[in-house]
Design goal:
The complex is a heterodimer of chains A (887) and B (297).
Chain A: H1 37-49, H2 51-68, E1 71-72, E2 83-84, E3 92-94, H3 96-120, H4 125-128, H5 134-139, E4 160-167, E5 173-179, H6 186-199, H7 201-206, H8 213-226, E6 236-240, H9 248-258, E7 261-264, E8 268-271, E9 274-279, E10 282-285, E11 288-291, H10 314-319, E12 324-326, H11 343-351, E13 362-364, H12 368-377, E14 386-390, E15 393-394, E16 397-398, H13 402-406, H14 411-419, E17 424-428, E18 434-439, E19 442-457, E20 460-463, E21 468-472, E22 487-493, H15 523-554, H16 562-574, H17 587-602, H18 611-624, H19 631-653, H20 673-681, H21 686-710, H22 715-740, H23 747-757, H24 761-767, H25 774-783, H26 791-803, H27 816-829, H28 846-870, E23 877-878
Parallel strand pairs in A: 3-22, 6-7, 6-11, 11-12
Antiparallel strand pairs in A: 1-2, 4-5, 4-19, 8-9, 9-10, 13-17, 14-17, 15-16, 18-19, 19-20, 19-21, 21-22
Helix pairs in contact in A: 1-2, 2-6, 15-16, 15-18, 15-21, 15-22, 16-22, 16-23, 18-19, 19-21, 22-26, 22-28, 26-27, 27-28
Chain B: E1 7-23, E2 26-30, E3 40-50, E4 55-60, E5 66-72, E6 76-89, H1 103-110, H2 116-122, H3 135-142, H4 151-165, E7 167-168, H5 179-185, E8 187-188, H6 190-203, E9 208-215, E10 233-239, E11 245-248, E12 260-266, E13 275-279, E14 285-296
Parallel strand pairs in B: 7-8
Antiparallel strand pairs in B: 1-6, 1-14, 2-5, 2-13, 3-6, 4-5, 9-10, 9-12, 10-11
Classes of the chains: A alpha+beta (887), B alpha+beta (297).
Chain lengths: 887, 297
Amino acid sequence: MSRVEVSPFAGESLFAEYAPDDSFYDEIFRGRGEVRASWSDFLSTIASIGRTELMSRWLQAQEDIHETGIAYNIYDQSDGAVRPWELDLLPQLISPEEWSSLSVGLVQRAKLLNRLLADLYGPQESLRRGLLPAEWLFSHPGFRRVFHGQTPPKGTFLHFYAADLARAPDGRWWVVGDRTDAPLGLGYALENRIVTSRMLSNAIRSFNIERLAPFFKTLQGTLRAMAPAHRDNPRIVLLSQGPSGPNYFEDAYLARYLGYTLVEGGDLAVREDHVFLKTLAGLLPVDVILRRLSDEFCDPLELRGTAGLGVPGLLQAARQGHVVVANTLGSSLVESPSLMPFLPGIAREWLGEELALPSVATWWCGQESARTHVLSQFKPGVENQLSLRSAFRLGRRDAISEDRMRQRNTPEITKLLQTEPSRLIAQEAVQRSTTPVWCDSSPTQWHLAMRVFLVAKKHSYHVMPGGLIRLDRNSLPLDLSVLGGRLSKDAWVQATGPVQEVTLLATAKQPVVLRRSGAELPSRVADNLFWFGRRIERAQGTCRLLRPVVARLTGEGESEGSEELAYLIHCLAEQGHIEPGFAVEGMKDRLPTIANILPASVMDAEMLGSLRHSVAEAHRNASLVRDRLSLDSWRIVHHIERLLMRAAQLQESSEPSSKNGKASDSQKGILTPDEVGALIRQPFGLVELDELLGELVVNLSALDGLIGESMTRTSAWRFLELGKRLERSLHVVSLVQSFSSTSDKEEGRVLEAILEVADSIMTYRSRYLAAVSRAAALDLLLTDETNPRSLAYQLVSIADHVAHLPRNESKPLGFPEERIAISLLNNLRMLEVEDLSIGSGGKRTKLERFLQQVDEQLPKLSDLISHRYLIHAGVARQMSGRGGSVS
Amino acid sequence: MRLANNMKYKVTHTTKYDYDAPVPVCHNVVYLTPRTTNVQSCSRHRLTVNPTPTTHSKRIDYFGNAVSSFSIATSHRLLQITASSSVTIQPRQLPSEGSTLAWESIRNSLATERSAEGLATYQFAFPSPHVPFHPELSDYARESFKPGLPILEAIRSLNERLHADVKYDPKATTISTPIIEVFEHRRGVCQDQAHLMLGCLRALGLAARYVSGYVRTQPAGESPRLVGGDASHAWVSVYCGSAGWIDVDPTNDSFPQTEHITVAWGRDFSDVCPVAGMFIGGGNHQLDVSVDVMAIE
């Protein structure tokens, strides 16, 4: 497949070679070289920016996109490939006149669909008056009777609507798809806008481009106005399918942008027909749910047989009016394409208007006249413009998958057309309009589709001035998903005059109730933050331990260094980075082997606790709580993961290390220059590892800084910190314990190595100018509460965090986890200077016994916290049996 | 045909869930209240749930059934749901076969009637979650539904054949066994037999609904004991034009008169599952159901 280079070039002259096929409508050109009038000023402006500058801005934009992690289903690890969101430089420009006529049609359509929902879930006038065939509704697998009879506030069933548009060769826009369930793509449109407006910031002002923010304000206002209770400050949550869903990025992105809590079904509970958010501090009432989960999956109690993604009892709570769900449960009913043929008649009858925006020509085969027409088209010898598709959509998918339908004319489909025609439609393909895309170094003609978004406002709808444009090489109906296609574009709607800046920040008019608690922390989120903390700390500890090892392995071959190297390798083995066998006597002989296997074992994603594993897990935890981390923190995490991924690819391409080959011939234990050379020549050898470690330490430290300086001190921060402090304590303890089991010949050098690994060597030097002394070093590492790397510092923090975790009750003598933290801290504080001895042979010292205690008690503390806060209350299950056995 | 007298029954339907571990929360939806129909009235109905539900509400569903929802937010290891009802049934008047219209004309009239009642009937002519369309069933049904045959005669024939062809076997199926498998293996319980019959009738374009209820446990006099006592029962009701809805029980090869107590109807089992619920925790659980239908003189 040819490579798409998202066009960094713009301007008329750059498209000189572009020769569009004139059987399509080209958005920019009216034929070879002739630019449409509405585009010419814009193209000149772009051209005036200059090729080099545009190129550099575009590259920057690509970097931004990658760093925010905009990807469709970033979390789909099944194929491992995270699809980057490719964005074209040039936005689609839409004139004010064109937009206003489109808007009229879109608003009319949204109103019509809303009214149709109210009718079908109510009196069903439309069936009785013959506006819609009863067969259509009764054949619809999504017509769940349990949705019938709901009375949402203000009669709004459709709060949020999206339409897919395509422009035909005559220049008219056609609706090719309606999305009424839980439309996707809004987050992508927003992100495209942010990136594009950064690239072309002057143009967006000088061409009076409409902003998107007012649309989001309307969305917020509409949802707030729906709240059945707490009208002044309702709790609104965004219900997501979670990371298993294809749109998790978008969900997290929108939740953060709109300021709503991102929840999954398991985070909500229904009690007494009211919906609550399960948090560490107990149940908090929820007033409005912005639903991003298909209605099919929202209530496993009443919609039996569906996956456990939803909230048991939600539908009843909504029926009672105790919670408002947007869109109303059941709204997916009218997004089936088989509805299209009936819309003009319904518009005429109900609104007294013609349908302003036509739908793509569609025949529902459930009607005899339509079926006859379709069958006549599918005769051999008849050139046919129609494609057969599933008539109905269910759970955001075609009820008969597109894949199965592609095998049309196979006996199966022909049979279906005869036996169950109501499950099929035939649709004319719109020859979609085109736009130039830079591909294989020349501009080629790609086809375009546009998704536009509407939100309910009072008794009408607000159209978002803009949209999500996607491009593909062919003009096939792109109905799989608007997130299909290979490229994306922003849509710029020109205003007639200057555009006002709008911000999503609350205006002075709206009084805001000050909140500081941040208690709204679902256990699932706390769990991920805790483990995120542990893993980034583990990664940092590993880097700091590996660095001196790698430096010594690649450095000058001096046997004097071997004592501390032995110690460091012992630590590596203790912490599970290499086989314990490497750390025993005769280790010297094995150095070449260690040098050889180290890069591979560090990059071993399968090995629990390896650097690669820790980073991958930290990235996974972070991606699950993306709405809780600042954008910059996420960027660093994402960047670190990319560094590791790149290194891992290099490492895999390295020659298989010759474990028993020539390296073992070396009896000296020190690498010969040849051996070092061989290692260096590997694509991923010690040198690359060293560079990687350096870069990782810097990034991980930056992450520490962000956590320390940018996170408010809520429970979320405490859980993250708790994870970090626990891990750091264990790391220090392990360093000191390993020391006690090494011989004391080169004590000074070993102590220096410990201080180096524990990032405390500078402090030591500033305090003690002399050679390293055991007691002084141990004090700095263990008992000095002012050193943020010391064990004492960690235990003080742990005790503080544990004491401040949210609790509903109090216990006179404290909770078990509090008692552990306090007792460890007290024991440490009770140590005297003379106790700071270690490895005196034979009997274990007081210090060693204490370290042993820390090593045992901290994992216990971690378990206690997990049990109290982090383990899910459990997933709801279906009662078994035939609901009471049936004869 | 000899008409029986009115019958009065006292029905007790108990469902017990016994859990290994405590259940802190459960939500339930139950269809346990007998419907009022033109031949049936319910003079007393009581739903008792133990432990006492935290919330309890009742509504009438799309098909006109009474559905109760309740949830329990106190920790429990045993959940017991008991529905007791007193029901009076008049004998269902079965018209003579010859007086019923040809089945095709009844089928053809379905699509033309757009009144609320007409639509409520028409919906039962379409596939439903447990009863998808299968052309095989249409072929099977056509052996009974010969062209021009009065509908009741055709139904009787289909009922006889299904009863003879599908063996009653409580071990052969689960609730998720597709009807086409039941059709191929020719074994199942009343639910499967009802679904299969619905599949046959709807494949021809006729309107037929699934009826959930009970049959009398101890039959009167000499009559043979009916299958389906001591548990919920299920049968079918077919729309027969001016003759109205006629109940037919493929499990017992009979046309119910006074021994079938109707609780609820829908397109299939999924619309009227007697007891459905979700719970948290609980470990393994054991289900125990008992139904007692007592005739009161």
